[in-house]
Design brief:
By secondary structure, the chain is of the alpha/beta class. The protein folds into two domains: 31-126 and 254-321, 3-Layer(aba) Sandwich (D-Maltodextrin-Binding Protein, domain 2); 130-244, Periplasmic binding protein-like II (D-Maltodextrin-Binding Protein, domain 2), CATH 3.40.190.10. The protein is built from eleven helices and eleven strands. The protein has helices at residues 2-26, 43-59, 74-81, 100-106, 142-151, 169-178, 190-198, 209-217, 265-280, 282-290, 300-321; strands spanning 33-36, 65-67, 89-94, 118-128, 130-134, 157-160, 183-186, 204-207, 221-226, 252-260, 295-299. The radius of gyration is 22 Å and the shape is globular.
Length: 325
């Protein structure tokens, strides 16, 4: 009897294996949703749309971008963390994805998701953020901006994509390094934060190059500084904060793709292969270059190591900011 049960079990497993393989071979055979945890027009959205279009051409299935904004990215990130790990829901995340669970600890609440609920697939881009101000503002240099902020503590306002978000942390780093006090005005995403700056509702914004580049070209915004290690393409004349003598202020806003943890390895591999192909797609490269961004593709484990190191570094920034009530 025991031998018969073992034989039946082996037959069952043997039958299941080809079925699972066939399912993997057919993947994807229906739409793959790409979630962006912010409104349209922000950095993650700027990256997600050309990548999704490239995946549609490759897989011949729709790859709709779904903007699920709210709580500085927690809502969309958490939705993907809880999604079925079947490969049909993926996240195009901003760097704040590794920060928000740490921020939740400040409030003594359970985070909307934890990092072990998300499996890194591929880094797509990593750009230093830029300090942008209205072109009509009185500041033409970083030094003028900082001097004015010191004269008027708490009066110069800046927008962000939410508390502890990818656009909040760099300004908090600058404020600590320059010993200035500014008024933080959080929004539900990078696009409304940028709209507020262009409309003159706030006076400064730290942003990836993509969203602000058209406004800089059209003369509505001026860029005073970069959080990068070196000048970036299209903004070669913009000084870095490091070159101005500030330490501990290097910061990059990166976009990377994640799947829900528990996804089958062959399906994760298919997703990673698709993302690698998209990163090399000439249309994607052109779209990101036109937006002032650049491809920085890192696959699987390399992306996981990159994100883990950034999470550790940025956790210290979150702890320094402290609880925001």
């Amino acid at each position: 009897m025991i031998q018969r049960r073992a034989l039946l079990g082996a037959i069952s497993l043997g039958a299941a294996a080809p079925a699972a393989w066939a399912q993997t071979e057919a993947f994807p055979n229906r739409p793959v949703s790409m979630v962006v945890a912010f409104p349209p027009g922000g950095q993650a959205d700027v990256v997600a749309r050309p990548v999704a279009a490239a995946l549609e051409r490759l897989w011949r299935v729709p790859v709709p971008v779904q903007n699920r904004a709210g709580a500085a990215g927690e809502i969309g990130n958490g939705a993907v963390a809880r999604a079925a790990p079947d490969g049909y829901t993926i996240l195009m995340a901003l760097s704040s994805v590794v920060v928000l669970p740490e921020a939740a600890k400040l409030f003594g609440r359970a985070p909307a998701y934890t990092l072990d609920q998300l499996q890194p697939l591929a880094l797509v881009s990593a750009d230093p953020v830029l300090l942008a101000v209205p072109a009509a503002s009185p500041w033409r240099t970083l030094e003028e901006f900082i001097a004015d902020a010191k004269r008027r503590p708490g009066e110069i306002s800046y927008s962000s994509s939410g508390n502890y978000s990818a656009l909040h942390l760099p300004m908090a780093m600058l404020a600590a390094a320059a010993e200035i006090d500014m008024l933080h005005v959080p929004f539900q995403g990078g696009a409304p934060a940028l709209t507020a700056l262009v409309a003159g509702q706030v006076q400064a914004l730290a942003s990836g190059p993509g969203p602000i580049s058209p406004h800089v070209r059209e003369g509505r915004l001026r860029v005073l500084a970069s959080w990068g290690a070196r000048p970036i393409a299209g903004f070669e004349d913009v000084p870095t904060l490091l070159s101005k003598g500030f330490s501990g202020v290097e910061y990059y806003i990166w976009c990377g793709a994640y799947a829900p943890a528990g996804i089958q390895a062959p399906i994760a591999q298919r997703l990673r292969q698709g993302l690698a192909a998209a990163a090399a797609d000439p249309d994607v490269v052109r779209a990101l270059n036109a937006a002032g961004s650049a491809i920085d593709h890192r696959d699987g484990d390399a992306f996981a190591r990159f994100a883990a190191a950034d999470a550790e570094r940025l956790a210290r920034v979150v702890q320094r900011i402290g609880r925001i009530d």
